[in-house]
Design goal:
- Helices cover 44% and strands 14% of the residues.
- It folds into three domains: 200 residues, NAD(P)-binding Rossmann-like Domain (Rossmann fold), CATH 3.40.50; 86 residues, N-(1-d-carboxylethyl)-l-norvaline Dehydrogenase, domain 2; 137 residues, Rossmann fold (3-Layer(aba) Sandwich), CATH 3.40.50.720.
- The chain has 18 helices and 14 strands.
- Helix 1 crosses helix 3, helix 4 packs across helix 5 and helix 9 crosses helix 11.
- By secondary structure, it is an alpha/beta fold.
- The structure holds nicotinamide-adenine-dinucleotide and uridine-5'-diphosphate-glucuronic acid.
- Uridine-5'-diphosphate-glucuronic acid binds next to helix 9.
- The site of nicotinamide-adenine-dinucleotide (NAD) has 27 residues, from helix 1 and helix 5.
- This is UDP-glucose 6-dehydrogenase.
- Its EC number is 1.1.1.22.
- It catalyses: UDP-alpha-D-glucose + 2 NAD(+) + H2O = UDP-alpha-D-glucuronate + 2 NADH + 3 H(+).
């Protein structure tokens, strides 16, 4: 099948490369000429395990191409996936300018039946706006080509994106057009050969499904974070509570880890965008407002613990930070809790040495020119002369460190752990002061 993917970011690249792997002829469009030039050399601008090899293999096989040429990319695909960003507007609603620009561009060059598939996360009703944007361009050109608009939201997670795409839990296809539905099923059938995981539904339900899924997951996280904070004052252990409730299959173990608040390019913006839609239609989601508020507070939890220990004036103190990316296995810093922590430490007069296995460069760009902050190549280098170690992201490399070396490097043996990587008992035995989330503190 001939497929065009508009937008070569996380979702566009993964979609394009994975569909090429299944034998489709794929052209990926991006308007960022520099990005396209790099991709044409096989260089991928994001860190995503397995993605670069997949892209290179399919480019070599002649099934995957990158271009900045809008006309050529529209001409190529019978299916046109839109996978551009939908960032939060000032009021929190989804900014649809990139989606509608992509739709207009399709309309400018459309001259035969095509299926326009929206993979970006968009508010309910966006399919109608996409239809209008395409039709407006056709009318301008007095062109009478037909087309269908489909909602096909993406559920992949960064850090596991290729695997998630190749082995989906479900594929949601929202359309009222049978021809479009058949084409979409044909594209995805090879990915779900042994399981019937394709869910067909109307457009609006498909659009809402995406927000509902992210909002539900974000709700679990905020609830666990509140329970963790309550556990601390009650003298309970959130890790035991997590296992105790997760063992009930109606609850399940996934997405029950308390921490430093959810970050990333999606949960924060999608929770707000769904709330905006709900308010526009006079049905505000009270739970979702609480989810958002709790998350904002939780992002300060490490700074609060640090200030409870050292006082609010941190001048003259130096902190080691392990983990900058919003989660492991990605270099994505969007809405990362580490940014809130570092801003807070610097604002209180402290200095910081931070290490992340892959996000150092992006963080250095983000904080460019800020005094009192350095990034280290190795985790242990960050610890030298620090008053405490603060763990923000649960990279595997941080799980079994040499505690004797940590103690030797730090000025005082204190760990603030935002991800509960270590057992409090072990910390007691190592004689390290330990501040986890929702568990016994070792003072
Ligand atoms: P991204 O910012 O990584 O990439 C978007 C790309 O689109 C950029 O390279 C940009 O240059 C390009 N672009 C913008 N306008 C364009 C246009 N008119 N024509 C061609 N290219 C254009 O974004 P992303 O993380 O891939 O997210 C895309 C959408 O998918 C968002 O709606 C997001 O909510 C959703 N989503 C993201 C993830 C994720 O893990 N990142 C997962 C599921 C869904
Ligand atoms: C999330 C969803 O999991 C994907 O299904 C969805 O497609 C995607 O958003 C999207 O729409 O973009 P992602 O943001 O890549 O994926 O990462 P997650 O693994 O969901 O983690 C999000 C945040 O929640 C991270 O900051 C993570 O640390 C935090 N989290 C996650 C917790 O604090 N506790 C948990 O138990 C799980």
């Amino acid at each position: 099948m001939r497929i065009t993917v508009i937008g070569s970011g996380y979702v566009g690249l993964v979609t394009g490369a994975c569909l090429a792997e299944y034998g489709n002829q794929v052209v990926c469009l991006d308007l960022d000429a520099e990005k396209v030039a790099q991709l044409q050399q096989g260089n991928v601008h994001i860190y995503e395990p397995g993605l670069e090899e997949l892209i290179r293999r399919n480019m070599q096989a002649g099934r995957l191409h990158f271009t900045a040429d809008i006309g050529a990319s529209v001409a190529h695909g019978t299916i046109q996936f839109i996978a551009v960003g939908t960032p939060a507007d000032e009021d929190g609603s989804a900014d649809l300018q990139y989606v509608l620009a992509a739709a207009s561009n399709i309309g400018r060059y459309l001259n035969e039946y095509k299926v326009i598939v929206n993979k970006s996360t968009v508010p309910v009703g966006t399919a109608d706006l996409v239809k209008q944007a395409v039709q407006a361009q056709l009318d301008l050109r007095q062109q009478r080509s037909s087309f269908s608009v489909v909602s096909n939201p993406e559920f992949l997670k960064e850090g596991a994106a290729v695997d998630d795409f190749m082995r989906p839990d479900r594929i949601v296809i929202g359309t009222e057009d049978e021809t479009a539905k058949d084409l979409m099923q044909a594209i995805y059938a090879p990915l779900v050969r042994n399981h019937d995981r394709i869910l067909s539904m109307d457009l609006r339900s498909a659009e809402l499904t995406k927000y509902a899924a992210n909002a539900m997951l974000a709700t679990r996280i905020s609830f666990m974070n509140e329970l963790a904070n309550l556990s601390e004052v009650l003298g309970a252990d959130i890790e035991l509570v997590r296992k105790g409730i997760g063992s009930d299959p109606r609850i399940g173990y996934h997405f029950l880890y308390p921490g430093v608040g959810y970050g990333g390019s999606c949960f924060p913006k999608d929770v707000q965008a769904l709330q905006q839609t709900a308010m526009q239609f006079g049905e505000p989601l009270k739970i979702l407002q609480a989810v958002h508020d709790v998350n904002r507070l939780q992002k300060n939890i490490l700074l609060n613990k640090i200030m409870a220990h050292f006082g609010s004036d941190l001048r003259g103190l130096h902190f080691a930070v392990w983990g900058l990316a919003f989660k492991p296995d990605t270099d994505d810093l969007r809405e990362a809790p580490s940014l809130v922590l570092i801003e807070g430490l610097l604002a209180c007069g402290a200095t910081v040495a931070a290490h992340d296995p892959v996000a150092n460069d992006k963080a250095a760009q983000y904080f460019a020119g800020r005094a009192g902050l350095q990034f280290t190549e190795l985790p242990m280098q960050a610890l030298e002369q620090a008053n405490a170690l603060v763990i923000v992201t649960e990279w595997k490399a941080f799980r079994s460190p040499d505690f004797a070396s940590i103690k030797k490097s730090l000025r005082s043996a204190i760990i603030f752990d935002g991800r509960n990587l270590y057992e409090p008992k072990r910390m007691k035995a190592e004689e390290i002061s330990y501040y986890p989330i929702g568990r016994e503190q070792i003072l």
